[in-house]
Amino acid sequence: MFSLKVIDTDNFLEMGVSARELYFQFGMRADDDGFLGNPRRIMRMVGASEDDLKVLVAKKFIIPMATNGVCVITHWKTNNFIRPDRYDETQFKEEKARLSLVDGRYSFEFMNKIDPGIPNDIPKVDPGKVRLGQDSIEKEEKKSSPDKPETSISWLGVFNEKEEFKCGIPPETLKAFSEKYKASEGQIIGKAEDLVVWCKTNGRVKKNYKLFLQNILKREFGIRTEADKILQERIAATVGKSSSFAKELSKKMTVSRGGGAPEQKIPTLWELDGRYH
Question: What is the pLDDT of residues 47-105, one digit of tens each?
Fold first, then answer.
């Protein structure tokens, strides 16, 4: 199960699609206490990347343990309630003992001395090999010049004391990007947050964060063509209205019972052995 208290928050929805998909895959495969002993196997199965895992860790949706690659879903108890007669305790009892549970949320009290928050089994980033999405990461760049706002990472956004992300992209630029690329403003803000987390996690500095974001948006979402714009306008113009196709379909789905009796809709679904057909 997945609670809307978790997956309907801006913090979750503004993550990249692949990171959200990985969270759902973890949730479907975790044990009755929310633990996963094979996160990397799941990542390979669903085609997720290291960056997707690191985003989930940085945003505290996943807590990695510093032993055996085990991780736990932070809001597992918020998402799920398992009846006592169906509950099987996790095999990772030592890891569970290191966690405290408050208001349906695990917190990690055991601190990794080498790299707090990131366990030993998650390898450090090799600048020559790591990819973010499909974009090859360049070699370490020189520190940004303060001459232009776009050269500071705060142009993408910052995190406040409550670890809430505040987008730093100017509203006019945000609107222009949503018109240029096949991404909504919310998706762009989410990607900006991912990039900030990625840069800080890997200690990377970019010369131009505006251009950095544009390259990612182009690769992951693509350029919005004129045909896309026309289709979007048509969809917006017909929202809430019945199309001619819908009207014709409605006619086909009704039959007359004869003798002036009112029309009756043909059932389109039936249930057999607990399944709809």
Answer: 888 888 889 988 889 988 765 688 999 999 889 888 888 888 999 888 888 788 888 88
Of 177, 176, 172, 197, the closest CA to residue 61 belongs to 197
- List 100's β-bridge partners, or say none: 107
**Which of 180, 153, 186 is CA-nearest to residue 168?**
153
| 213 Cβ contact partners less than 8 Å away, ≥ 6 residues apart | 156, 169, 177, 188, 191, 192, 195
Tokens of 265: 């809709």
Record the pTM. 0.42
What type of residue is 263?
Answer: E
Residue type, 255: V
Asked if residue 46 lies in contact with residue 25, where contact means CB atoms within 8 angstroms, the answer is yes
Q: CA distances (Å), 101 to each of 4, 73, 96, in order?
A: 19, 12, 10
User: In the chain, what is the straight-line distance between the N-terminal and C-terminal CA atoms, in Å?
Assistant: 24
Answer whether 266's CB lies under 8 Å from 254's CB. yes
Q: Specify whether the backbone of 191 is left (phi greater than 0), alpha (psi in -120 to 50) or beta.
A: alpha
216 within 8 A of 133, measured Cβ to Cβ: yes
Q: Please give the structure tokens belonging to residue 98.
A: 């290191």
List beta partners, residue 181: 223
Q: 224 is written with which tokens?
A: 């919005």
pLDDT of 214-233, one tens digit each? 988 988 888 888 777 777 66
